[in-house]
UniProtKB/TrEMBL annotation:
The keyword DNA damage does not apply. It holds the Pfam family Peptidase_M23. Gene3D superfamilies: Glucose Permease (Domain IIA). Residues 1-37 are annotated as: Disordered. The lineage of its organism: Bacteria, Bacillati, Actinomycetota, Actinomycetes, Kitasatosporales. Signal peptide: none annotated. Residues 63-160 form the M23ase beta-sheet core domain. Residues 1-10 have a biased composition (Gly residues). It comes from Streptomyces acidicola. This is Peptidoglycan DD-metalloendopeptidase family protein. Keywords: Signal.
Length: 184
């Protein structure tokens, strides 16, 4: 399983990103770190990654086209970066929200979140940290409740962790340490 800091696959970039499955999924290494928060969990705390991004060897091969993040049922699901809701509805019986990210190129990056009971409508503008909906109970493919978080440019899947800057990927809970030897 890739680590939380794993890049978007390490594959060579396609000469025509976004033009369909010309190369292996995840080939686009130009993902800007525009994320400002995790999509689930307490603000500022890194959720447990239950399953990492596993790009398939071929465009239609087996793999895991996103990451699974541990979260409680009914937990709020937040936008990781600003954008416009491009889809909020049901796909194959699951609630899905997709957000087209602002200023991320042409075609733009798109994040997906599932299973989510949407509280936003298609076309709504959202900011980083805005609540998109709530994690649906019992609709998970994980052994416990989780959010499947994905990232695409056109129809090419990328590692969603690549959206997050290193300081956010590494951040754990803050700890206060005693100050010793400082004059009052």
């Amino acid at each position: 399983m890739p680590s939380a800091g794993a890049g978007p696959g390490g594959a060579e970039e396609s000469s025509s990103p976004g033009k369909g499955p010309a190369g292996p999924p995840g080939a686009d290494t130009s993902v800007p770190a525009v994320g400002r928060n995790w999509p689930v969990g307490p603000v500022g705390r890194r959720p447990l990654v239950l399953r990492g991004w596993e790009p398939p060897a071929t465009a239609y091969g087996r793999g895991h086209r996103g990451v699974d993040l541990a979260a409680a049922a009914d937990a709020p699901v937040r936008a990781v970066a600003p954008g416009r809701v491009s889809f909020a509805g049901r796909v194959a019986g699951r609630g899905v929200v997709s957000v087209e990210l602002t200023d991320t190129g042409d075609p733009p990056l798109r994040t997906t979140y599932e299973p989510v009971r949407a509280s936003v409508k298609e076309g709504a503008e959202v900011g980083a940290g805005d609540v998109l909906g709530f994690l649906e109970p019992g609709a998970s493919h994980c052994p416990s409740s989780c959010l499947h978080w994905g990232l695409l440019r056109a129809d090419v899947y990328l590692d969603p962790l690549s959206l997050l800057p290193p300081w956010l990927l590494a951040r754990g809970p803050s700890r206060l340490l005693p100050v010793i030897g400082v004059p009052r």
